[in-house]
Amino acid sequence: MAVVRSFADEVSPAFDAMARRWIAAGAPVAEPRRAATVLLVRDGALGPEVFMQRRAPTMAFAPSMVVFPGGRVDPGDAEFPVEPGVLAALAARLALPGQDVRSILGAAVREVEEECGVRVDAGALRCRGRWVTPALEPRRYDTWFFATRMPAGQEAIGTTTETEAEGWGHPADILALAARGELRLMPPTIVSLEQLASFDTVEAFLADEPPLDLVEPTLVLTPRGYVLESRIP
């Protein structure tokens, strides 16, 4: 059953003021660019762990946010080599044409390697969800979320100037830090971490196939002011 949620940063006087400025400016809506992000996971002593990075404060999109490795689809990703069987299976799961899926997979694999030096197997990527940036944001992305086990024999390290810190952590611990205001998470990251925290092993997490309905946060006027509501499958 879908759940409608708002998140802390979206229920505040600051957010309400931003929403009203956007409406007063004519509510311009940017076309979202396709993107992919990947939860690199491994089994830890207390359950699954995930690799995360804190974006540099100078970034135009999501400055200082703690995120999973990922980024937008580039034109060159359309040439990414994928085994036909892998491509067909994922195209059916994502309900997209094969060429679109090829580009998304290409972006996922490329971005993980560029941002943390890890080469993941496209065939091992498991799709977890799809979120689009709210309409009032000037930079918008239609992002597919994937998960995969950390490949044996490799090490995840920061290899990009887009981030300033990185590391492994248990999802519940990361969520607790965010709740105390010690780090910042975007709503899709929060939901992804909550889902990961509900599993005892990486194997069980990767075997799960959640619904892939698009999550598109909607601006709603409430007695508290404007908030975003996300219908999460």
Number of helices: 6
- By secondary-structure content and strand pairing, the structural class works out as alpha+beta
Q: What percentage of amino acids are in beta strands?
A: 25-35%
* Tally of strands: 10
Largest sheet: 7 strands, mixed
Q: What distance separates the N and C termini?
A: 6 Å
Q: What labels would you give this structure?
A:
233 residues, alpha+beta, Nucleoside Triphosphate Pyrophosphohydrolase, seven-stranded mixed sheet, 6 helices
Structural overview:
This protein is α+β, with helices and mostly antiparallel strands and 233 residues long. The chain has one domain: Nucleoside Triphosphate Pyrophosphohydrolase. Helices cover 29% and strands 28% of the residues. The protein has six helices and ten strands, in the order βαββββααβββαααββ. Strands 2, 3, 4, 5, 6, 7 and 8 form a seven-stranded mixed β-sheet that branches. β6 and β7 form a beta hairpin. The longest helix has 19 residues. The model has no long low-confidence stretch (mean pLDDT 95).
